Amino acid sequence: MALLEIHHLARSFDGVLAVDDISFDVADGEFVSIIGPNGAGKTTLFNLITGIDQPTHGEITFEGKSLVSLKADQFAGRGIARTFQHGRVFGNLSVLDNVLVGAHARRGASRPRNLVLELLAALLPLPAAREEERQLQREAEAIIAQFGERLTPRLHDPASSLSYANRRRVELARALALQPRLLLLDEPTAGMNLTETAELLEIIRRIKGRGLTILLIEHKLSLVMELSDRVIVMDNGQKIAEGVPEVVRNDPRVIEAYLGHKQHQRDIAQKAGQSS
Amino acid sequence: MEHFLHTAFDQTINGLVIGNIYALIAVGLAIIFGVGNLINFAHGSVYMIGAYVGWVCVTMLHLPLPLTFVIVALVCGLLGVLIERFGLRRLQNSARIAPLLATIGISFVLDELTQIIFSHDPQSFPNPLPADRIPIGGVTIGYIDILIAVIGIGGALLFFLFLRYTKLGWALRATAQDREAALQMGVDVNQVNQTAFALASILGGIAGVLVGMYFQTVYPTMSFEAGLKGFTANLIGGLGNIPGAVAGGLVLGLIESYGVAIFGSTYRNLFTYGILLLMLVLRPNGLFSSKRQLPPEPLTGTFIPNKRRIKLPPWLVISGAALALAFPLVVKDPYILQVLTNAWLFGLIALSITLVTGTAGQISLGQAGFVAIGAYACALLMLRLHVPFELALIAAGIIAAILGTLLVLPAFRLRAHYVAIATIGIGEIVSQIILNWRGLTNGALGLISIPPPSIFGIQIVLPRDVYWYTLVLLLIAALLQWRLSRSSLGRIWRALRDDEVAAQAYGIGLNRYKALAFASSAFIAGISGAFAAAMYSYINYQTFTNSISVLALTMAILGGMGNIVGAILGALALTILPELLRGSVDYRYFLYGLVLVLLIRFRPQGILGTD
Fold first, then answer.
1. Within a domain: A270
2. How would residue B366 be classed by pLDDT, with cut points 50, 70 and 90?
3. Which candidate from A98, A123, A161 shows the least CB-CB separation from B484?
4. Are residues A187 and A71 in the same domain?
5. Is A160 within 8 Å of B504 when comparing Cβ atoms?
6. Is there a single domain that holds both residue A10 and residue A83?
7. Beta-bridge partner residues of A9
8. Substitution target from A13, A75, A88 for chain B, most B beta carbons within 10 A
9. Which residue of A165, B414, B455, B515 could cross-link B418, Cys pair, CB 3.0 to 4.6 Å?
10. Which residues span the domain enclosing A40?
11. Which residues contact residue B433 at a Cβ distance below 8 angstroms, ignoring those fewer than 6 apart?
12. Residue from the list B488, B498, B610 with its beta carbon closest to the beta carbon of A133
């Protein structure tokens, strides 16, 4: 049984199918990338897998249990973490606090089930709760330290004061604080220059090395080819190709989806003209 | 049977006439919402001023009716232009709640100005039309009914033609559809905005005169109610939808009219606010729209500017508190001590707002509702069950927390300024329930002879002792709130405030943490109300009005949203400011309105900055 199984998933907005009958599996420890032109439905697919949006049709199971009827706030508890396409950090929270929010679902002693108790625990935390808070804080600092000099000096600065690239790093750190079973990354290198992209590639490679299952949406194909065990190509809401990076790269349907039909033909015509 | 039919006919005519007026107000609000994406709370004030201008023309200047309408249109149109130009234009790029709060400030200023000029008392507005009624079949219709119908339908028709066939009308529609694109195509968006305000204000002013003539009276406080009803009518038809606003106005007028006929006139507003809340929760896009609301982008809904907070050293805060505690040892003037006692009670309400609105990002404009629940709970426990004050005080806080949270619960799925509107409605509903639940609350008569505050069985009546009692309560509340704010719960609230979607993705349940925020907030507000009830010894359904909510919010903004010391300083400043400016005590709401408008324009982060 695969870790994540997606069966005939569909989502339509006013009759337009943003995700159109998609099925695929992700095995434990696998690194799968989803590529495709803008508007192909990749982010909608992510929103469906993380409960921000509900499918019109189809089934998603994680560790053998259905995710479809869960509320958006129950996914973290199942061990699913994500980053967002345009970066959604908590602007007025410090970098450290942002990462600590990521660990929210893992809290035990400092998060009683009972509403009134939770309020009292915040007013007068018991030793166990205080110890848990300290422990999570140490972990959060260790996660931030992985990003080296980029984030460590900004530990107590509000996230809104960070550069775009740094906000993306905070998002990744926040996701890692959940210690997820499945990590979904939505264009983590958008807005980053070459050096920054290379740095992030290293960090993602390290995370992958620890055996974490990762789903990645990314436009930078070099990154995709280097990291992925498997690539899924989407266009117009549909899965048009799937396979190991080398095979997908040369699939004519993929080239067509990216370059457009006419452009592709024109290229061919041009090449033919040159050779003659 | 015939009698019943006659009554039904009368109620229908009555409902349609009132509905026509609501429609005029709602159309104005719809134009402004459509063009500027703004809920204009000053609209009710423009309507009220229209009524007063009409009253002056008819009773003092003895002008003919057509000329009166022309003058009202001119004055109100100009007023609309001024509101847009000086109150709102600069706020176009602020958070969306900023212009909404500014219009509330403007409405305070306009209402209070009217009171200064024409006094608080209602003025009689003799109907200049013939008083006899025209018989039709077995029933009759008054001239005023016909006039309102003609102006309502005629106005809507003229407006439709304007939008359809004039260049400015085109520009208006283009701006309403896509502001950026209209700007790109060379539409002068500022001019369009100004036109929208002028037109809306003309319609509002004319509605005001018609209402004045219909009920034969004008009074300054007619503005708030009219604004909220116009908004409800607009919401029924879908915000910004002009034909929808007409339909919504008529529907609301009919529901009210039938409701009053069946249940009695004190239920009139309960219907409106109930519908307001139902619409917000069930169909926020109106009866005629099938689409669900789309979630807004992050960081746009809240009123939290990204400015650095000024950190006060702990010794300064502690010595400030010590100074306040020692104050009555030096100053013994009971008047000054009473003013400061008021400041501490308001400080509690400001604290409660800064928690729910500043820290948790849920804009509350209905805090007075929680205060009223606390006050009535405490008073009733003492009067009916003879519970000692200390116990009643705590119980009142808990009751306010539970009832308050339950009332706001349906609004948890709303965001940003919809939360603000819903909480206004909830505040009004509390006051209407108090008015109508006579068996429990003694209705409009209120509760009298509430025992004074006490501690360990000793009654606290001396101004000095009352001062200390309230100050200690305030300091305890501040300390508790500071603990909450620094805990992991405080962090969760801030995360929720900054981005609900991301917070949910990390396992933060919106309902749970909004409930905790509202419960904590309502507890503190309820304590303030409970103490006030015992201190005043008399309360009624109008003791805790909507203006208290707005004032406390202004205090919280003044101090810096989410800032605990700031809320107390804000309460202190706004309570003593009118006392310092001699003679302005009677006009303090004018001052408060002005402070709110200026704050939002020039220092939205407040004195100490947001936390």
1. no
2. very high
3. A123
4. yes
5. no
6. yes
7. A22
8. A88
9. B414
10. 4-89+180-251
11. B270
12. B488
CB contact under 8 A, B299 and A91: yes
Contacts of B241 (CB under 8 A, 6+ apart): B30, B34, B234, B286, B288, B289
CB contact under 8 Å between A97 and B491, yes or no, is yes
CATH of the domain at A14: 3.40.50.300
Q: What is the pLDDT of residue A262?
A: 55
Chain A: residue nearest B480 by CA? A123
Structural tokens at position A105: 């679902």
CB A63 within 8 A of CB A5: no
Q: Do the chains contact at B508 and A104, CB–CB below 8 Å?
A: yes
Residues A194 and A79 grouped into a single domain:
yes
| Domain shared by A63 and A35, yes or no | yes
Domain count, chain A: 2
Q: Give B284→chain A minimum CA distance, Å.
A: 19
**Mean per-residue pLDDT for B453-472?**
94
Contact A92 B501 (CB under 8 A): no
For residue B512, list chain A residues with Cβ-Cβ distance below 8 A. 115
Residue B326 has pLDDT above 90, yes or no: yes
User: Which amino acid, residue B56?
Assistant: V
| Distance in Å from the first CA to the final CA of chain B | 65
For chain A positions 169-208, those within 8 Å of chain B (CB to CB) are 174, 178
- Rounded distance between C-alpha atoms, residue B194 and residue B201, angstroms: 10
Task: State the pLDDT at residue B294.
Answer: 40
Does the pLDDT value for residue B292 go beyond 60? no
Of residues A88, A63, A137, the one with CA closest to residue B508: A88
Tell me, yes or no, whether A81 lies in a domain.
yes
CA-based nearest distance A52→chain B, Å = 7
**B295 to chain A: closest CA residue:** A52
Q: Structure pTM?
A: 0.90
For tokens 């009695």, name the residue. Answer: B264
Provide the pLDDT for residue B91: 85
Pick from A78, A92, A185 the residue to mutate for testing the B interface (most B CBs within 10 Å): A92
Token output for B101: 């709060």
Tell me, what's the pLDDT at A65? 93
Mean pLDDT of chain B: 88
Q: Are A153 and A119 in the same domain?
A: yes
Cα torsion through B148, B35, B276, B495, rounded to 10: -170
Q: Most A CBs within 10 Å: which of B308, B486, B488, B500, as the mutation test of the A interface?
A: B488
Measured CA to CA, the distance from residue B352 to residue B364 in angstroms comes to 10
pLDDT(B138) > 80: no
Compute the nearest-CA separation of B100 from chain A (Å). 23
What are the domain boundaries of chain B? 28-216, 221-288, 333-545
In angstroms, what separates the C-alpha of A182 from chain B's closest C-alpha?
Answer: 13
The alpha carbon of residue B363 is apart from the nearest alpha carbon of chain A, in Å, by: 17
Where does the pLDDT of residue A261 fall: very low under 50, low under 70, confident under 90, or very high at 90 and above? low
pLDDT of residue B411: 87
